[in-house]
Predict the structure of Spheroplast protein y.
Amino acid sequence: MTSAALLAPAVYAAGPDDGGCRHEMRGDHKGYHGEMHKMFRGLDLTDAQRTQMKELMQSHREAMQAKRPSDEVRAAHKQQMLDMITSDSFNEADLKAMTAQRSEQRAQAAVERMKMQREIYQMLTPEQQAKFKENFAKRGGRKGDRP
């Protein structure tokens, strides 16, 4: 029972949908939006399309930042994890509820990213859309292409 309690933070931190990509969201990495730029490379975008895409991605970035939990919420969550680890008993239901909530948040973020990608795709000309599909098919099997 003690080993399960010690693994709780690792289970939560990794998350079921994480795929080990947390580093892309920190530091000098461009994160998800850096990957977005790669998706549209070689499409000969017009200046107007580039401007529209930048505005859409900035809007998406701001919306996602607004949905991030506050420092107080994160501190409370950290305390909750500590309480689970140091408790005399282990409550699996509480841990499952916490991880389910985190999974739902990640799923919603994935939906928002897909909506943004679709909006950007709709900005492309039919020729650019065909090239995008071709490039996307070629990308298969590379790092970052996780289910």
Notes: The chain has a mean pLDDT of 76. The longest helix spans residues 92-123.
